[in-house]
Amino acid sequence: MNKIPASPLLGVLGGMGPLAAADFLTKLVAETPATRDQDHIPYVAWGVPQIPERPAAILHGGASPLPQMLRGIAALKQAGATVVAIACNTAHYWHDDLVREGGLPILHIADAVCDLLAERGITAGRVGLLGTDGAVKAGFFQQRFAARGLDCVLSSRADQDQLVLPAIAAVKAHDLPRAHGLAVDAVARLLDSGAQAVVLACTETPVAIDYADSPVNARCIDATRALARACVRWHQGTKQAAPLERLKLTQ
Fold first, then answer.
1. How far apart are CA 215 and CA 181, in angstroms?
2. pLDDT of 18 higher than 90
3. β partners of residue 32
């Protein structure tokens, strides 16, 4: 009889930044339908913050984070991970390289966001995008929005410099009250520009928005939560496939 394969295990590539990865894991638990510990998704996480800055590599030819990210994926694979979620939006610029060289499938955060938009009935019109300069230039969100019939609204250069980037920096510096105010203003500007919803496409921005209630919170699409939901769907799919796989192996 053939050996039954080990249970599917989620690998979480974190460290970009540390609080954002912790936020992802919290949302992974919150999004999992469970009544006991054993119902939750098994995962192993790699969180080494000493990875070169992603936006600097994309925008200015800075040190590439790819070798360090591949090191993390290798560690996850050695630990038994069978699929990977990356708790960083901008890092998905290297998604194809990571899949090809890392040897594991990787759930794409922008695909997860598009699925969540569709679940909320947003299938046409304008959607705001709040992210790093690197994620904006990388274009993978805009490409996927366009494929779904959605137009993308971006922050102005002034809003990016005065609101978005300072909000991200404030989260990294643990100044959440300041981060919240800046992020709320940035979202409000995009809504005023005609966006029907705003995608929080940097993992620090949901942390900033969620710090307190505001009039814009309900209009935000949390990319981190969308990725967590995609992980739940993956896990549910593996559970449904497992009995069939075991049946094949015992025949």
1. 12
2. no
3. none
State the pairing for strand pair 197-200/150-154. Answer: unpaired
Distances (CA, A) of 75 to 6, 18, 89, 120, 156: 17, 18, 21, 36, 40
| Domain with residues 10-108+225-250, CATH architecture | 3-Layer(aba) Sandwich (3.40)
99-132 b/e (C-beta count within 10 Å ≥ 16 → b): eeebebebbbbbbbbbebbeeeebeeebbbbbbb
Cα 95 from Cα 229, distance rounded (Å): 19
The two three-digit tokens of residue 42, written as one number: 């098994």
**pLDDT(119) > 70:** yes
DSSP letters for 216-233: TGGGEEEHHHHHHHHHHH
Say whether 108 sits in a helix, a strand or coil: coil
| Structural fold of domain 110-223 | Rossmann fold (3.40.50)
Beta carbons within 10 angstroms of residue 216's beta carbon: 18
pTM for this prediction = 0.90
Looking at the chain, which residues constitute the CATH 3.40.50.1860 domain(s)? 10-108+225-250, 110-223
